[in-house]
Inverse folding.
């Protein structure tokens, strides 16, 4: 796992620092988008500035993205391969469960295709709420 993340970092011209690896392991291992608080709780020791810069550089390089940003905090999730430093291409939905309050990156059954006449659309974000799979069962 950490080897894989080290490779991803090298791929994007980022040094594989322990902090970056650790943050990626936390975000990548969760199975849902991870809040800043959750990241902080999972780090052994860190300083806020380094963590902030780490999240910023990982976002800039298209390795992670902000899944949600609201009054409860910022949530981060891993990007897929097609994201780059210039462009984040997400065709998924950010879903918040009303019961457990987890945030998920979910792919809809049918790929979203949004077009606006006369405009060049480069990206869009869809936020949805409801009840997640594990809370339903
Ligand atoms: Zn992305
Ligand atoms: Zn839930
Ligand atoms: Zn997402």
């Amino acid at each position: 796992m950490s080897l894989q993340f080290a490779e991803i970092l090298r791929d994007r011209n980022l040094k594989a620092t322990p902090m970056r690896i650790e943050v990626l392991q936390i975000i990548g291992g969760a199975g849902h988008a991870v809040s800043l608080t959750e990241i902080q709780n999972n780090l052994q020791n860190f300083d806020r500035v380094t963590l902030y810069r780490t999240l910023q550089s990982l976002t800039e390089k298209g390795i992670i993205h902000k899944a949600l940003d609201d009054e409860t905090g910022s949530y981060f999730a891993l990007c897929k391969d097609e994201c780059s430093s210039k462009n984040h291409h997400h065709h998924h939905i950010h879903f918040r469960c009303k019961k457990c309050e987890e945030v998920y990156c979910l792919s809809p059954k049918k790929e979203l295709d949004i077009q606006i006449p006369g405009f060049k659309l480069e990206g869009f974000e869809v936020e949805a709420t409801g009840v997640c799979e594990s809370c339903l069962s």
